[in-house]
């Protein structure tokens, strides 16, 4: 199912990938999947423009990732797509290929299931970058703070910024 033109990728867990699409589908019915050499990205605003979701999956998360340098934007009708696709089982992989007109999803397991859809035209609306700052005052009990640091111990670098 490799694509000579357009894009092709394999994700190790079809269940996880489709769950991400379901989450985006809760916010927007139609989305533009931006597939570029670095990542697969989707940004969506709900119709009331109150909720924003942005998901970025790095190319290193895929078992195979073949994307032309210019990338490709694929319009998905999530409400139809998610209604048609079966619930994948644990251990099933997802293979995705697309060109300018169509995209295909292959859920690979005991019985491979192939689905082919026409890419829809989705207006790429400008979603402003968010820059949120909150002024907060907080008091933390030393015992709770110590426990939080203990819980974060294995997570890598911990930074605490205290303005003077």
SSE blueprint and pairings:
Layout: E1 7-11, H1 14-25, E2 30-35, E3 39-45, E4 52-58, E5 64-67, E6 72-77, H2 78-84, E7 93-98, E8 102-108, E9 113-118, H3 142-152
Antiparallel strand pairs: 1-5, 1-7, 2-3, 2-6, 3-4, 7-8, 8-9
On the 0 to 100 scale, the average pLDDT is: 87
Radius of gyration: 20 Å
Shape: globular
Helix proportion range: 10-25%
Q: What is the level-2 CATH architecture name of the domain at 7-118? A: Box
Uncertain segments of ≥5 residues (pLDDT<50)?
none
Main pleated-sheet profile: 5 strands, antiparallel
Strand order of the largest sheet: 5-1-7-8-9
What is the first-to-last residue Cα distance? 59 Å
- What class would the helix/strand composition place it in? alpha+beta
Got a strand count?
A: 9
Here the CATH topology of the domain at 7-118 equals Proliferating Cell Nuclear Antigen
CATH C-level label of the domain at 7-118: Alpha Beta
Beta strand %: 25-35%
Helical segment tally?
A: 3
């Amino acid at each position: 199912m490799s694509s000579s033109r357009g894009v092709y990728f394999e994700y190790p867990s079809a269940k996880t990938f489709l769950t991400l699409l379901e989450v985006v589908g809760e916010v927007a019915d139609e989305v533009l999947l931006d597939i570029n050499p670095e990542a697969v990205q989707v940004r969506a605003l709900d119709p009331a423009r109150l909720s924003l979701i942005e998901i970025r999956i790095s190319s290193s998360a895929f078992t195979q990732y073949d994307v032309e340098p210019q990338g490709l934007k694929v319009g998905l009708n999530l409400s139809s797509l998610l209604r048609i696709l079966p619930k994948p089982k644990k251990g099933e992989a997802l293979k995705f290929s697309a060109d300018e007109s169509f995209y295909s999803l292959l859920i690979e397991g005991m019985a491979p299931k192939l689905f082919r859809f026409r890419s829809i035209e989705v207006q790429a609306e400008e979603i402003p970058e968010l820059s949120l700052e909150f002024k907060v005052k907080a008091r933390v009990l030393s015992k709770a703070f110590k426990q939080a640091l203990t819980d974060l111990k294995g997570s890598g670098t911990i930074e605490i910024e205290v303005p003077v």
